[in-house]
Amino acid sequence: MKVLWFTNNLLPKIAEENGIKASVNEGWVEGMLDAFRLSEDDIEICLACSQTEIKNTLQGVTSTYRYYAYYEKSRNSYDSNLQKDLIKIIKEFNPDIIHIMGSEYPHTYSAILAAEECGLLERTIISIQGLLFYIHMHLEEEYKSLKGIHPSLRDMIKGGGIRKLSKEYYYRKEYEKKAFQLAQHVIGRTDWDKKASYLLNPKLQYHFNNEVLREPFYEGDIWSLERCEKHAIFFSQISNPIKGFHYLLEALPIVKKYYGDVKVYVAGSDVFKSQERLSKGRRTEYVNYIFGLIEKNNLKENIIFCGSLNSIEMKERYIKSHIFISSSIIENSPNSVCEAMILGVPVISSNVGGVSSIISNNEGLLYPVHESYILAANILELFSNNDLCEEISKKAREKALQRHDKNRNAKDLASIYRSCL
After folding, report:
1. Domain residues for 195?
2. Residue 47 located in a structural domain
3. Same domain, 199 and 232
């Protein structure tokens, strides 16, 4: 069987081979590729990846897969000409199955149209990552609720800020909706994405398949209460307001009354490190808002911005921390939570979207998304209760090892492909 995967970014090996900076977002794809290579040797995988650096389609073969890296001027806008390039790739590889990883960008719609043109729509599958159609709604609601936030001079001159992000999401969600209305098969993994996708297209055939995580999280050291930095919190993916870092900053003053040495290590974007010393007018509005909360709540000594981390650096930061926190206002099945769980790091998460399909039965602590005081109470509970930390760590790791079993998930995905044939 021949399967063509469409991915949002270049895999690190492809990027390195072509002299392009690698993304840190597609490591799980390599994990699934490795699982297929070991357990499903009758399936040939070819990758079609989006890239914005070189103005032509790149081609190559690694030791385990063939690839195409097609050019997009911008991932945030629909290009009607892109469909021709994708048709060419499909016809050249001649797949039995087309698998599109994610629906957040307009190129998903181009890929669906290309599949339809090639007579493969019935054998084309979209994997749900996030669902921008609903994420945009939550972003709009959150922006209205943020008190004291307003565009900076930089945003007004360059047209940036949350309003720009919201406009991009609004534009992209319309193409996501079009893609879902054409699609016949989707793959998901939570009760939330199943119900939400049916709202976009009640005729969809929904397939369940758990994800594979990035390779470093399956091997080597795991979290230990004895070895971690006490009262250290890890928080990832800070730059998007959807991730709700501001709610953690609202909770920290309560925690600090009892644990003055609390530290929050923040990863996910270099923008906070690069803009920390700039004037307010030269920062983006959300950076200003975050630094305003830090100053207002006297938290400067408690926050450490780590910048963008690769998978190995992320793993090190997870296991050095006492707990991991996700305070997002909407999520499907956040990879950061899954990575923390498989390492045994005690997790506190807002109970949004598909999170309750990921965490249950003391595998972590959940709290109502806008109630930062309950987030603070949960932090205090874990900091003061070593037995609870150990219990959560053990149960979460057991659950995550089963959920993210590479071989089983590869076999389940292969079964989905065969059913579509």
Report:
1. 2-215+405-416
2. yes
3. no
pLDDT digits (tens, 9 = 90+) for 110-167: 999 999 999 999 999 999 998 999 999 999 999 888 877 877 777 777 777 888 899 9
Q: Which two tokens stand for residue 185?
A: 């098969």
Place of tokens 């005690």: 346
Question: Residue 307: which region, alpha, beta or left (left: phi > 0; alpha: psi -120 to 50)?
Answer: left
Residue 89 and residue 7 share a domain: yes
- Rounded Cα distance between 122 and 185, Å, is 8
Q: Are 322 and 233 in contact (CB under 8 A)?
A: yes
Q: What is the pLDDT of residue 277?
A: 64
- Three-state secondary structure call for residue 190: coil
Is the pLDDT assigned to residue 318 strictly greater than 90? yes
Q: Are residues 132 and 249 in the same domain?
A: no
Q: In sequence order, which residues have a C-beta less than 8 Å from that of residue 39 and are 6 or more positions away?
A: 407, 410, 411, 414
Paired strand residues for 7: 49
CA distance 186 to 194: 9
Query: Residue 180 in contact with residue 103, Cβ under 8 Å?
Result: yes
CATH number at 302 reads: 3.40.50.2000
Cα distances (Å, whole numbers) of residue 236 to 195, 242, 321, 388, 404: 27, 12, 12, 23, 20
* Number of domains the chain is built from: 2
CB atoms within 10 A of CB 229: 14
Query: The pTM is what?
Result: 0.94
> What is the C-alpha to C-alpha distance for residues 223 and 217, in angstroms, rounded to an integer?
11
- Residue 137, token pair as written in the block: 């709604």
End-to-end CA distance of the chain: 10
More confident: 228 or 275:
228
Q: The tokens 């150990």 sit on which residue? A: 390
- Does residue 241 lie in a domain region? yes
pLDDT value at residue 90:
98
CA angle 158, 106, 188 (to 5 degrees): 120
Decide if 421 is inside a domain.
Answer: no
Residue 17 has pLDDT above 90, yes or no: no
Our CA dihedral for 151, 152, 153, 158, rounded to 10 degrees, sits at: -70
Amino acid at 393: S
Show Cβ contacts of residue 259 under 8 Å, excluding neighbours closer than 6 positions.
231, 380, 383
174 in any annotated domain: yes
Coil vs helix vs strand at 99? strand
Tokens of 89: 């790739």
Q: Residue 269 carries which DSSP code? A: -
